[in-house]
């Protein structure tokens, strides 16, 4: 039996992972499940999967979790340290599906014990890609991409030499506002931004898809994970979300990965890698679909994309600044304190604030330094927000 843990088990990726695990319960020995405020979901899944331990991120919910697990034999724990301790529990395969920079420290800990890390938490690659990859290397651990585009690229590279890759194209659905004119975008409401045309995901990534901050993060994720230069990475708007990514080789061949928009494909590929096993995802009927569309993203309506290339050009720990400022701007949008386009303006301002701070940005990439920069960038995002709203 394979020992597995799921971080962010109560979220969209976590639940899709559990759906796959449940179909083959004898194959897995579940070690840890973690969640946030949804104690009922966390406890029910931990009991059903006979996990050793369930951890909520919130210390003040420990009593609730204990109560929900009474008599089940599943241990309860809470808080940041408990998450790290759970990640240190021996496991063969660990799903990293916490949302935001909070996923970085548990992911690092899982790598330190040599586990295979199935990485949905793109934020950790954006914040500290080099640190994560280096930690994996030092501990003989392996990181497998779970973001659909990166899983697609990874699959396109099987048996290929990365040096023969000319370009990597990741697709973007265009999110909720693909066809909205610029002047309408700032009026976009939270409810409108929280509804995705093709994918059913957590609220934060859904809004990031509407603003294309999600795609901006994925461009950086591509750069960090595959080691290709920023000029080799392209984004193509593809409303149907069926072609997830394309790898272009130096002989001109373009290998596309197609599949239904269902995260269980990328999760399942990472779960069974290097094998391919049957997965319960819809099969595409291309004749019925008839036509697939592609267009170039509009930089004026989606300024987040340009910011990603700026972050990569600056290098150092600018990714941690970018992610933290974006997370904070998103908090403010969700709290209705700023408009939709203000998110990109705030992030751009924070990037400018840190541009010349070489002692911070170009310091050694450690977990402590990344966390320090993360906090400072969040503070600067608040300053930029106050300036905008008066
Ligand atoms: P979600 O909001 O549905 O779930 C997030 C999970 O993280 C929950 O279990 C929540 O309890 C937990 N969590 C939230 N804040 C936390 C904190 N501070 N500390 C510890 N745990 C915390 O999100 P999701 O859509 O499942 O996305 C999870 C990750 O996967 C994100 O990094 C996202 O970008 C990435 N991802 C998601 C999808 C998708 O289809 N949902 C696709 C690609 C990548
Ligand atoms: Mg994606």
TrEMBL record:
Record-annotated 1-deoxy-D-xylulose 5-phosphate reductoisomerase C-terminal domain positions: 143-226
What family does this belong to?
A: Belongs to the DXR family.
Q: What is this protein called?
A: 1-deoxy-D-xylulose 5-phosphate reductoisomerase
Task: Determine the domain of life of the protein's source.
Answer: Bacteria
EC annotation from Swiss-Prot or TrEMBL: 1.1.1.267
Function field? Catalyzes the NADPH-dependent rearrangement and reduction of 1-deoxy-D-xylulose-5-phosphate (DXP) to 2-C-methyl-D-erythritol 4-phosphate (MEP).
- Domain 1-deoxy-D-xylulose 5-phosphate reductoisomerase N-terminal, chain residue ranges per copy: 4-129
Cofactor(s) listed in the protein's UniProt record: Mg(2+); Mn(2+)
Q: Which HAMAP family match?
A: DXP_reductoisom (MF_00183)
Enzyme class comes to: oxidoreductase
List of residues binding NADPH: 10-13, 36, 38, 121, 123, 202
Q: Name one Pfam family in it.
A: DXP_reductoisom
Reactions the enzyme catalyzes: 2-C-methyl-D-erythritol 4-phosphate + NADP(+) = 1-deoxy-D-xylulose 5-phosphate + NADPH + H(+)
Coiled-coil stretches, from where to where?
none
């Amino acid at each position: 039996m394979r020992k597995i843990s799921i971080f962010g088990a109560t979220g969209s990726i976590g639940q899709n992972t559990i759906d796959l695990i449940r179909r083959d319960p004898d194959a897995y020995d579940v070690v840890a499940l973690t969640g946030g405020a949804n104690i009922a979901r966390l406890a029910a899944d931990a009991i059903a999967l006979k996990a050793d331990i369930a951890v909520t991120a919130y210390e003040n919910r420990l009593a609730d979790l204990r109560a929900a697990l009474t008599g089940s034999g599943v241990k309860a724990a809470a808080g940041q340290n408990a998450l790290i301790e759970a990640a240190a529990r021996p496991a063969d395969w660990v799903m990293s599906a916490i949302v935001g920079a909070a996923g970085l420290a548990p992911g690092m800990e899982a790598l330190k014990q040599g586990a295979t890390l199935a990485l949905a938490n793109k934020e950790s690659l954006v914040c500290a890609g080099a640190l994560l990859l280096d930690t994996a290397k030092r501990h003989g651990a392996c990181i497998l991409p779970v973001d659909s585009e990166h899983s697609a690229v990874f699959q396109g590279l099987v048996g290929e030499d990365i040096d023969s890759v000319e370009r990597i194209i990741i697709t973007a659905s265009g999110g909720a506002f693909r066809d909205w004119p610029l002047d309408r975008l700032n009026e976009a409401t939270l409810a409108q931004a929280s509804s995705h045309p093709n994918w059913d995901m957590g609220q934060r990534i859904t809004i990031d898809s509407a603003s294309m901050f999600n795609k901006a993060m994925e461009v950086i994720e591509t750069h960090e994970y595959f080691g290709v230069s920023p000029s080799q990475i392209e984004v193509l708007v593809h409303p149907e979300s069926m072609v997830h990514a394309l790898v272009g080789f130096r002989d001109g061949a373009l290998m596309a990965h197609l599949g239904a928009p269902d995260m269980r494909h990328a999760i399942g590929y990472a779960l069974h890698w290097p094998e391919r096993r049957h997965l319960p995802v819809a099969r595409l009927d291309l004749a019925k679909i008839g036509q697939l569309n592609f267009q170039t993203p509009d930089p004026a309506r989606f300024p987040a994309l340009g910011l990603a290339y700026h972050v990569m050009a600056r290098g150092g720990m600018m990714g941690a600044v970018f992610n933290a400022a974006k997370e904070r701007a998103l908090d403010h949008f969700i709290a209705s304190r700023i408009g939709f386009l203000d998110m990109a303006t705030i992030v751009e301002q924070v990037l400018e604030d840190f541009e010349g701070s070489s002692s911070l940005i170009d310091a050694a990439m450690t977990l402590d330094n990344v966390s320090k920069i993360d906090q400072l960038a969040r503070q600067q995002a608040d300053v930029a927000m106050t300036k905008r709203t008066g």
